[in-house]
Hints:
Elements: H1 3-11, E1 15-20, H2 40-47, E2 53-59, E3 80-83, E4 86-89, E5 113-119, H3 142-148, E6 153-159, H4 161-174, E7 178-187, H5 191-203, E8 207-209
Parallel strand pairs: 1-2, 1-6, 2-5, 6-7, 7-8
Antiparallel strand pairs: 3-4
Helix pairs in contact: 4-5
Amino acid sequence: MTGSLMSIKNNYKMKTLIIIDVQNDFMPGGHLEVLHGDRIVPVINRIQNLFDVVLATQDWHPANHSSFASNHYDKKPFDKIVLHGMEQILWPDHCIQGSYGAEFHPGLATKKIAAIFRKGMDSEIDSYSGFYDNGHKLSTGLSGYLKEKGTKEIYFCGLAADICVYYTILDSINEGFSSTLIEDASCPLNQDNFNDAKCDLAKRGVRIINSNELFL
């Protein structure tokens, strides 16, 4: 390889898109629905070809997961408990392994998705981030995959913007990646929480853009 070609290769920034949890249970009518969550699907489909690598995460819980309210006596969804020393919101049963609710939204284009990283498989601990469980004890392997590909720049979108997207971006920053949130390709469970999350991400150097900016 000539010096000029080597220079081009070394300076090229591979753009990676990570699609977070665009699954049926987070869609309107799902067990843990995000209001208007289905509206982001066409946006995500429209931008995928702008990226060198497209990856996805998938909540993939066993039915006995400790984060489910149904697995705690006298508890209801959205109650809070302390689980293994950490505050845990108790959720409605969702994204159970092999269920329809755990599948990607049928309208999501998946042909360009190179790899899927499943999370929340340990019944004893939740996993909001696509990189680690909430205790940062077990890696999904996502960081190693990205670094092996030479990725330095990651764009994020998906559900829910104030929870799993937010925590995945936090871990992305800690892993040393340049991180960008595509806001109109993401949707929050709670808008107020998302506003706080965006402020926090901006302070940490995360870019927050609209998908149309990708075409400029």
